[in-house]
Amino acid sequence: MKNLKILCLHGPNLNMLGKREPGIYGQDTLDSINTGLEKIALEKKIKMEYFQSNHEGALVDCIQAAAGNTDYIIINPAAYTHTSIALRDAILSAAIPFVEVHLSNIYKREEFRRKSLLSDLAAGVICGFGKYSYFLALNYIISKELL
Model's pTM, two decimal places? Predict the structure, then answer.
């Protein structure tokens, strides 16, 4: 497997994990999710970068900066899933394959959460498995690269 570089992007309010609506999002913190991903990445010799922002433009800047030097993106766009044409355009222009993840099952939630502006561009969408949504995305990328 080549030396993979994966960017893990976390959208708005994910810095509040563990405190924010634990009945929906679980007890895990963003740091514990990143630590779990990093453990897998180190075992597989994958370089991971992590970035969280509550600001749409900062996420766009991060995606644009990744173009040409990142193999995959794992993104939880959070509330921007349903609203951000800017994120969609940034992902299109960066041309980096990505997996969209959500902690909760967005299809069991409010109607407005069931529409993603990114899903049709994604290699896949994983939702409803809490922190394991991220781990499943990483394992998909690893498996794909082993083929």
Answer: 0.91
